[in-house]
Amino acid sequence: MNPPAHRPQAAIIPVLLTLLLALAGLVLVPSTGTAATNLVTNGSFETGTTSGWSCPAGTVSGSARTGRYALQATPSGADIARCSQSIPVQPNTAYTLSAWVKGSNVYLGVDGGPSTWTTSTTWSQLTVPFTTGASATSVTIYLHGWYGLPAYQADDVVLDGPGGTADTTPPSTPGGLTVGNPTSSSLQLNWSAASDANGIDHYDVVRGTSAAQNVGAVTNWTATGLSPSTTYSFKVRACDPSGNCSPYGATVSGTTSSGPTNPPASSLPKHILTGYWQNFNNGATVQRISDVPAAYDLIAVAFADADASRPGAITFNLDSAGLGGYTVAQFKADIAAKKAAGKKVILSVGGQNGTISVGNSTAANNFASSALAVLQEYGFDGIDIDLENGVNAQYMGQALRSLQSQFGSGLVIAMAPQTIDMQSTSFEYFKLALAIKDILTVVNVQYYNSGSMNGCDGQVYSQGTVDFITAQACIMLQGGLRPDQVGLGLPASSRAAGSGYVSPTIVNNALDCLTKGTNCGNFKPSTTWPSLRGAMTWSTNWDALNGNAFANQVGSHVHSLP
C-alpha cells in the first residue's frame, strides 16, 4: 500500500501551533509524571571523595564522565575492588539502578538481586531494574571489577525510585550461644534468634581475634578447618538490612576432639579417575554402567531430577527409552557389579539445566531425606554437587551433613563447580567446600567453558593450556582444601564442551606439574602436592566416542602418580 501523496490537514494544525508557540518563546513538553529521584549518596563523586560508599580499594580520579570526579577502584589478585552503599527503600516497589562505567569486567548490581556487567574502553551505561521484596526496607547496591584486572571507573550512579525511611535501630543481641558437637576439625555453634523491626539480614561470627564472618540469616553454623584438641572462642552479633548491628553476645568456647582430620577414605584409591555417565542420549556413545571402562574409579551418574512437590528434594529416573531399553533392574545390577569390582558409583545433582535449589532449612531437610532414599534404592555410594546455577553454602552444607549422618561415614561427597565458582574463598561454592571439608571427598573443578581467568599468582591465563589448569588448581590448594580433595576436570573430547578441550598429554602435564614439579608451562607453583587426588572428565560417553583416550591415557597416568 502506497502512502498518501499529501499530509492530511488535521495533522498540520498542531504542527503549526507548536511552531507558533515556539516562536513566542514557549515550548510544549508532554507530561512525564514525577521527576526521577536519585537515592544514591555521592553518586557522581563530586565531593572529591568516596564518602557514602564502603570502598576499601577505591578512590576518586579527575577523569570523569561528567563534572570533575569519578570513582576509580583497583582490583588485586585476591580482591575484586567492591564498592557498595546501603540505601533505604520501600517494599514491593520497582526501582532502576544505573551507572556509567569504564574498564574490564565491571559489574553493577544489588545484593541478593540482579546484576549486569560489561567491558568497555569508553564510558558505557549499565542498567539494572529490580523490584524490592515484601519486607524490604533497604538494598545494598554495588560496583566491582575482577581479580587481577586493571582499575575500573564509575560515574553518575543513580537509583531511581521512591525513598524509604532510614533505619538506625540495631537488632537485639543474640543470646544462648553454645559450642558443641566437636570433631577433630570442626565445632557446631547454635544461638537464639535476635529480633529487629525490619528483620535480620545476617549474623556475624568472630572466632578468637579473627575478623567477623557473615554466616547468613541462620541460628546455627559449623566452624571448620580447625586443629585437633584445640580450644576456640566464639561470639555472635546480629545485623539488619540497613547495616545496623547489635553488640556481640557473650564469648563461648569449645574444644575440638583428637584424631585424624581426614574424612573416611571410602575405599577409593589414593589417586582416582572420575567420569560422568550420561543418563540421556545427546549424540555421544550410549552406554550402560557396565560399559564404563575399568580405569574409572568413581562414576558419577548424571543427573538427579528435582521433585516438584517438595522444595530441595530430588528423585532419579532412568532414561530407559533414550538408553536403548536399559532397565532399572539391569542398571541396579550393573552398579552392584561395579562396586564389587572396587569402584564407586555416585549420583550427580544439577548440571547445566538443573533446577534444584537448597536455600532454607526446609529445603535442606528435603534434600537430605530424598537423597538418602534414592541412594539406598539404587545402591549409590554418594552424591555429587554440580549445581551450575549456584549454591547456598549454609543450607547445602546443612543438607550434606544431615545426609552423611544418616548414610554413614562411608558417604562419598564430590563437587564439580565451574571455574569461576572457585576463584575466591568468599564465593559460595568455595565456602561450601571449606564448610564440609571434614566430610568432603573431592572437588573436580570444570576447567572448561571458562574463557580467561585469574590464577593463584594474580596473572590472567587463557583456558586450554597447562598454565590455566595449574594456576587455577593452586587457588584451591592454597585456599584451604587438602591436596587429596582436589581433582582436575576436563572434557573428554572437543565435542564434549563448548571450549577448553585439551589433549590427554596436557592433562597429564598438569598433573605432573602439580604433583612433581615437572612438565609445567610458564607458571610453576612454588611447591608440589604429591597427594593431588586425580582427574575428572565429562563424560565417559564422549570418551567412548573418542576412543576412550581419556580413560586410557589420563587414567593410566593418574594411577601411576606417587
UniProtKB/TrEMBL annotation:
Coiled coil: none
Annotated InterPro entries: CenC_carb-bd (IPR003305), Chitinase_II/V-like_cat (IPR011583), FN3_dom (IPR003961), FN3_sf (IPR036116), Galactose-bd-like_sf (IPR008979), GH (IPR017853), Glyco_hydro18_cat (IPR001223), Glyco_hydro_18_chit_AS (IPR001579)
Keywords on record: Carbohydrate metabolism, Glycosidase, Hydrolase, Polysaccharide degradation
A GO BP annotation: polysaccharide catabolic process
Domain of life per record: Bacteria
Gene Ontology MF terms: chitin binding; endochitinase activity
UniProt family annotation: Belongs to the glycosyl hydrolase 18 family. Chitinase class II subfamily.
Protein name, per record: chitinase
Organism for this UniProt entry: Kribbella capetownensis
